[in-house]
Design brief:
This protein has one domain (3-90). It has two helices and four strands; from the N terminus they run ββαββα. It has helices spanning 20-31, 74-90; strands at residues 3-6, 12-15, 39-45, 56-63. A two-stranded antiparallel ribbon has the order 1-2. It has a two-stranded antiparallel ribbon with strand order 3-4. It starts with a strand and ends with a helix.
Length: 94
């Protein structure tokens, strides 16, 4: 997801997330999967008609049906939850 940043001149600009180019390429690859596909993508860009990694603001790829994770123990479930949390915190996913 992009964030609003202020320049030295006091202007506000959209600053893309560091992973934006990789995620943009990933969504394009998912959209290229032949139908029927079990994925839904949603993307937003800064400029109408300009679908590029540089104008990519935010997006999501949702697997339909939703992914379900199964583990054998409560400890493994907690470890998996912590892994997701740590990934989101490290990559500033909000």
């Amino acid at each position: 997801m992009a964030e609003v940043a202020s320049t030295d001149e006091g202007l506000q600009i959209l600053k893309p997330h560091g992973d934006a180019p990789d995620f943009f390429r990933f969504t394009e690859a998912v959209e290229a999967i032949n139908a029927p596909a079990s994925y839904r993508t949603t993307t937003s860009f800064a400029a109408a008609g300009d679908r590029t990694a540089e104008t990519f603001l935010t997006g999501e790829v949702v697997a339909v049906p939703f992914l379900q994770f199964r583990v054998k123990t409560e400890g493994q479930a907690k470890e998996l939850a912590h892994s997701f949390h740590d990934y989101a915190a490290k990559n500033e996913c909000h």
